[in-house]
Amino acid sequence: MFKKVIIYLLLLAAPVVQAQENFTVLFLGDSLTEGLGLEAEQAYPNLINQRLKSEGHNNISIINAGISGSTSASALERMQWYIRSQPDLVILSMGANDGLRGLNVENMKANLSATIEFAQSNGVKVALTGMLTPPNMGQEYSSSFAQVFPDLAEEFELDFMPFLLQDVAGIAELNQADGIHPNIEGSRIVAEHVYQFLLPLIP
User: What is this structure's pTM?
Assistant: First the structure.
């Protein structure tokens, strides 16, 4: 009887280990997210996935929803399609191709706003990464383009990473021959920055 009491008391004192709930992160972006010119596992969302798993975050699922050439015009429709995957968090990284093509900034903002509103209305947390345009687009266009992202972050109270290509853009040795898409070394740097941005947002 005494042994049973001791065992019971030990069980009560033992820490309760709860299984972590699954948490899905959707990376919605363009060729920078897809990893154009790289092996699939070298794209920055996939590098992040590898690191999460190596550090024991086995409850985190990563979906790389990058499509090369896509503009903000496709963002809402794609978000509507991916909602079936029940993401908990979307890292929204759209707009780079709008800037490269000199597309209307107000239209881009409206497209991203509609995407954010849809995600939030379906219980999906949204985090936003910013983008810049090449200087050949002109100072006025570049400034108004860049301002869209912090404005959206403030309006919708989003976690915000000011520039997806921080420490990579414009550095020849970190980019492919086109000077736009990161090579594997550049992708590792992007992955590191986004990983640090992501960590506080996951359970």
Answer: 0.90
